[in-house]
Amino acid sequence: MEGWLDDDPAAALPALRASCSVLARQSQWKPACDAASALGNTPSSSAARQFFERHFVPWRLTNADGTGEGLVTGYYEPVIKGSRSRSDDFTWPMHGRPDDMLTIELGDVYPELKHLRLRGRLVGNKILPYWSREELGQRQDKLASKVLLWAKDPIELFFLQVQGSGRVELPDGKTVRVGYADQNGYPYQSIGRWLVAQGQLPLEKASMEGIKRWAQDNPSRLSELLNANPSYVFFRELPASDDGPIGALGVALHAGRSIAVDPRYVPLGAPVFLSTTRPSSSTALQRLMLAQDTGSAIKGAVRADFFWGPGAQAGQEAGRMRQQGRMWVLLPHGYSPPGTR
After folding, report:
1. Which end of the chain, N or C, is more open, meaning fewer C-beta atoms within 10 Å of its C-beta?
2. Residue 339 within a domain
3. How many domains does the chain have?
């Protein structure tokens, strides 16, 4: 694995132990998880490396066409301004999951489609697609969902939806953590790519910061911009915690050590060695990560979303990250994943 000896695997142990709170229930993972617990809280880098080499086998991930490189993007935990009540300063609703939205698990009928589901609404005896982002905006007063909070900035709220979780800072200084509750069933469409296609931004400036600046300069086209992405995320309020946001595995994410993956190829919770470069750079970023999250845009074997942590600086790193990388999933002896060779 390229760069394996350059990383400090001891720094990944807290994230691994978080994964083990779920994985240790499975017989094939329990020996490795027990050994990780026995290492203690401050093992040396060499002891951690020996642990991983003894208990895991690396499997290089490859794409369907046999290539070994794929896209590595970044995400973060936004911190935005909001309020529990609507006012002139806080006018953008953050909705909970609607009571009238149906979820259809296709895998219940077709096992080969176990990772696919549909969202819809019942009209008479027919199931129709649920409302798109634009339609939801037009139906605000008729939505069958609770408004959890009111955001100050629509673009900040949009990126909170893209990230799927974050923190909302209230006027009294208190912070509310929110997490992904559901999504309206429409595929995510990049508003950055929309701006490029419209000739509004060159590709190299279609970053999160570039999109924010364009929105500030073009307030009359804000709705048009946001509605270019029909996908809409609904939130739930989470217990207050100093830990990271909760990922798809059900454990708190660790800044710089957690990634989102496609679970069809990488088992959730597994260690993954990632060999890529830092955002907008050729500087190597080779690090042992833990596959603790998923994302609607994370599709394919060699595909990862790197979690940078909370706040504006993490957001800048995440917004600039669009690198190529290689991945190896580390699995207990006798356990081989699909899509590897």
Report:
1. C
2. no
3. 2
